[in-house]
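FW: tagging you since you asked about this chain on Friday. Here's the raw sequence from the shared folder, copied in full. Didn't touch anything.
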Amino acid sequence: MAQRMMQEPRPVIEVHSPATLAKIGEVPVNSPLEVRAAVQSARTAFRRWSALALAQRAEVLLAARDHLLAQQEELVTLICQENGKPRLEALVELVYVCDVITFYAKQARRFLAPQRITPHLLRNKKVTTIYNPRGVIGMITPWNFPLILTIGEAIPALLAGNAVVIKPSEWTPLIATRATEILQGAFRAAGVPPEILQVVHGYGDTGGALVDEADMIAFTGSVRTGKAVAVRAAQRLIPVSLELGGKDPMIVLRDADIERAANAAVWGAFTNSGQVCISVERVYVEAPIADEFTRRVVEKTKALRQGIDVNESPTGRRVDVGAMTFPKQVETVEAHINDAREHGAQILTGGQRNPALPGRFFEPTVLANVDHSMKIMTEETFGPVLPIMRVKDADEALRLANDTIYGLNASVWTTDKAKGERIAAQVEAGMTCVNDVLVGFGVTDAPSGGLKESGIGKRHGAPGIRRFCHEQVIVTDRFGMKRELLWYPYEAKTERLLQRALGALFSSKLSAKVKALLGKAS
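HL: got it, structure written out here
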């Protein structure tokens, strides 16, 4: 009887390093009821937090930034252990989060300032748009950037006055948990309720429960899951922001700086083991320079160091390429390479799991003789693979670059920058770089987001904080007349006045006569 009365053990998620496969921690799985409780406590904290002036919220988050900096070595080490990336890439995540705090702390006042509108018709009215926080923002985040896409995503929402509940990926829950604990400590020190930022853990049920409870959902992840989130959110008519997949093209024209373009292609394809939604996933290079460009890319790829990064390197040289975080993503990479090989592609280097390393390491891979009959050129690979396709001219490159369901990021390479910008404007992508790769995400001043099935909504810039706000319009009468023209009682003279106004305001013939008279006068 006593055994029956004992509660079943709480389910947990075990976390293993993708580099060593060793267990590094665990987190409890939160039930839908616990998610509801977290959102309710966040909503209570939101009332106090949103009542603070924006300058006060900025001061709190700037102080919290110092807490993160004080724990930077712990955070960098944990990212490397949990995510598998090299130390430099882990440090970039912390740089990004600190920059986002700094940027929005300085710019939020300008972005969220009331906007005065001058009506074109009802000039007797004062019109103002104000930005109010939505309430509790639910964030469902992926595993490839476990600090950038959790804490970094939460910063503008918090500054706007919202509370945030994060459901991180079950593959990388530790870094979001630890960073949240650090920030909550800063909030307590500032006298702010720590419940304005919380983390819940679990699988699809936990994420679904968050969609059912929050006032808005910001999701980053796959197209398939993003669509499911949007459908579920639609049942409650709550807004969603979705950053989904990408198959980002790189167009290399015959007058490009080949050395710079080759360096960019290798880093753009293999940084974070290719697990970047805006990574270089396919290259279109004009025929006259295709052989030389490909030769340099292969040479540089073979020189990359892959493995587990350590802080105490005797030479100071770091690992370039780390492990892949998600086991199924390794299988996707293998499937895409096998499909390409079966359709005639040539593997110039790599093409397999690294047999010399214990974890989920896949060798940086370069492919040639590829075309759009292959998955490697049409489906998101999200791994360390770089397919290079020879094209006859810029028009063919542009057509192939736009032949995709995605539209997240791209790059164009040419020494003629004006031409590069003209071509960039024709690429169907939310952001396109000229003679650079991936860097657009680091420009926090400019909105970043996708077209087509790459998602809806923007992060960064003014849209990146305004998406977490209700836009409320306030219309105020300016003159205080006892009665407006269209108020009761209705009268024939009012109708005649409106008819005359129709002709005066909207008649094309009258407009033409006025323009003619003005022309003669000039």
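FW: Confidence is low (pLDDT under 50) at residues 1-5.
HL: agreed, and Residues 11-243+468-472 form a domain with the Aldehyde Dehydrogenase; Chain A, domain 1 fold (CATH 3.40.605.10).
FW: great, closing this out.
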